[in-house]
Design a protein that fits this description.
Structural class: alpha/beta
Largest sheet: 6 strands, mixed
Strand content: 15-25%
Distance between the termini: 34 Å
Strand order of the largest sheet: 1-4-3-2-5-6
Radius of gyration: 20 Å
Shape: globular
Number of helices: 11
């Protein structure tokens, strides 16, 4: 396994750092040999965290062979033990389940952070209002003026790894690691977009809860004498349906309802 550590300055407004507890977050991204968590392997993980207000450190673990996967996961999970929050871009759909499954394959013990901030899920409902034609990470980066040195995407990274396995060409490893490095390095800066969404009047979710759903939820809460702080402006149709189902099943605690909202976002 090859490892690399690098620290750089990321200067973020103090109000954004505090609002999202950014100094307490582990920012991460993975590269794999494909999209099938049962058949494919984790080949590279980068994890970043703030050591001081503007000093951001990234550690990278690269599997020089497929047999290095277990060690890559172990190194990553060891760092995660220090955090209660982790952050990704579309990681709830891909990275998190992939990490869980591959770790279980090795009978590894792991306690993932309690809270997962998926920036993609926070931004995607406002894509059109932001003027974005796509909502992938690179599109959002360009939106806030980030210019990458990296020129590949995840699909190309898979092909490069196949070549690397055969000839161990150092330049191929550097290309893959740069791509994964920038995926993590740019995550803190994406919070600028989240801040804009939450602090600009007129931004409304494109999949916003319907008036009918809102009225029914309020009726069920009142009927069951449940007092809960739900921000209806940020609730989607899908989450509203899950809240209604939970209330009808008798699961009406504030903790349970907040968990439903948190799990989706």
């Amino acid at each position: 396994m090859y490892t690399h550590k690098q620290s750089s300055e990321i200067d973020m407004p103090i109000e954004i750092l505090k609002k999202y507890d950014m100094l307490k977050i582990a920012y991460f991204d993975i590269e794999t040999t494909g999209f099938d968590k049962e058949q494919d392997n984790v080949i590279l993980i980068s994890v970043g965290y703030y050591e001081k207000n503007n000093i951001f450190t990234i550690k990278q673990y690269f599997g020089e062979n497929l047999t290095d996967e277990k060690e890559v996961l172990e190194k990553f999970l060891k760092i995660l033990k220090e955090f209660d929050i982790w952050c990704s871009y579309n990681g709830k759909a891909f990275d998190e389940p992939f990490i869980k499954y591959r770790s279980q394959r090795y009978d590894m013990e792991f306690n993932l952070p309690k809270k997962h901030i998926d920036l993609y899920r926070m931004i995607r409902p406002y894509q059109k209002q932001l003027g974005l034609t796509r909502c992938n990470l690179k599109s959002v980066e360009r939106y806030i003026g980030i210019e990458r040195k990296d020129t590949i995407d995840g699909g190309i990274s898979v092909e490069l790894y196949k070549k690397y396995i055969k000839n161990k060409e150092e330049n191929l490893r550097k290309i893959m690691m740069l791509h994964n490095f920038e995926d993590v390095y740019n995550l803190p800066q994406i919070f600028n977009v989240v801040w804009k969404i939450e602090n600009t009047k007129g931004f409304i979710r494109e999949d916003h809860i319907t008036d009918k759903q809102m009225g029914y939820i309020k009726y069920l809460l009142n009927k069951n004498k449940v007092i809960v702080d739900l921000n209806f402006e940020k609730i989607s149709k899908k989450v509203a349906s899950k809240i209604i189902a939970s209330l009808l099943e008798g699961n009406s605690s504030n903790e349970k309802l907040q968990e439903i909202v948190q799990d989706f976002y």
